[in-house]
Amino acid sequence: MSIDNNKYSPCYILAIETSCDETAVAVVKDGHEVLSNMISSQIETHKAFGGVVPEVASRKHVESITLMLEEAVAASGIPMTELSAIAVTQGPGLVGALLVGVVAAKSLSVALSKPLIGTHHIAGHIYANRLVGDIHYPCMALVVSGGHTELVYIKEEGHFEVIGRTRDDAVGEAYDKVARSLGFPYPGGPHVDRMAMESEESIKLPRAWLESGSYDFSFSGLKSAVLNVINQRKMRGDPPITAAIARGFQESVVEVLVTKAILAVKAYDVKQLLLCGGVAANRGLRAELSLRCAEEGIDLSIPPFEYCTDNAAMIGAAAYLKWREQYFTPLEMKADPQLSLEEWGSNNVD
């Protein structure tokens, strides 16, 4: 469908993201210009538990959401009366955390008489790339986060087809579990990344390629292999080799992710590869993917660090797909922890 880009411009979307442990609110103009992007992180709160506690996360969102809304609107310079729509992460995510954002968005939608746009969290990660440059279709997205590891074929704007997904642990989960076994505090992923980048030694660990031609991923076996190395060394009384294990683990993860992404790009003959999600901030992955794409002549898009982890600007970017179609969400919308990316996107195409 041909869309008139100027018909509904300027469009100011107030976006809310509360899918996990960040309370985030942003104001985004025309789907790509970030006017404000406020984030209240709960890392220090959950560090004491070694991971995110859903009930605690929900309560912290309740405490923070009003202040985040006020700060984001004030920083944007756009009066609430001039907002075009209210967007919110509908799913996937922790249901209690999602509910806080959904209730806040519905309340604003009613109070301001503005349309409501329920938005998919992973679509947000994908369209974070739109905040820093154009997306060229068809394209392929490598989504890597704490809860998701997927390869998504995007034939045209808003049309998603998941061609590969994790069969067990997502890559972010694997990083956190390995980090815990190596003695790193939560969140452990950045510690593993730093240690891997600094280490001169590496322990060879297995790669899970699965069956021929599969774009799926599996990291539970790799996690078990790391634990096996650690436990065997402890039983023999050998000194720890934390850095070498971290590097070996990261090399295994990165090789599988990069190789499968490159194969998918070639098989689907796409114009661009998008790296998306919290693990897109991993320096080892960014470096290797950039190198391989340069060697293969593949156009690669990677958001800056602030748009990799959960934020509301990415939700505003994805919600703009719905705005351009004037496809809005009824107030009966419910938070949906299992929301399908493909079904959410199907409303954007004929």
Strand order across the largest sheet: 3-2-1-4-5
Find the count of extended strands (DSSP E, 2+ residues).
10
Structural category = alpha/beta
Give the uncertain stretches in residue-range form.
Answer: none
Spatial gap, N to C terminus: 7 Å
> How large is the radius of gyration?
20 Å
Describe the global form. Answer: globular
**Mean pLDDT, all residues:** 93
SSE run: EEEHHEHEHEEEHHHHEHEHH
Strand content: 15-25%
Helix content: 40-55%
Q: How many helical elements?
A: 11
Largest sheet descriptor:
5 strands, mixed
Describe this structure in words.
- The protein is α/β, with parallel strands linked by helices and 350 residues long.
- 43% of the residues lie in helices and 17% in strands.
- The chain contains eleven helices and ten strands.
- The protein has a five-stranded mixed β-sheet with strand order 3-2-1-4-5, sandwiched between helices. A five-stranded mixed β-sheet has the order 8-7-6-9-10, sandwiched between helices.
- Helix 2 (54-76) packs parallel to helix 3 (95-112), helix 7 (220-236) runs antiparallel to helix 8 and helix 8 runs parallel beside helix 9.
- The longest helix is centred in the last third of the chain and has 27 residues, at 242-268.
- The mean pLDDT is 93.
Topology of this structure?
Elements lengths: L11 E6 L4 E8 L3 E9 L1 H5 L6 H23 L8 E7 L3 H18 L3 E5 H7 L11 E6 L4 E6 L5 E6 L5 H11 L7 H10 L21 H17 L5 H27 L3 E5 L6 H14 L3 E2 L11 H13 L15 H6 L4
Parallel strand pairs: 1-4, 4-5, 6-9, 9-10
Antiparallel strand pairs: 1-2, 2-3, 6-7, 7-8
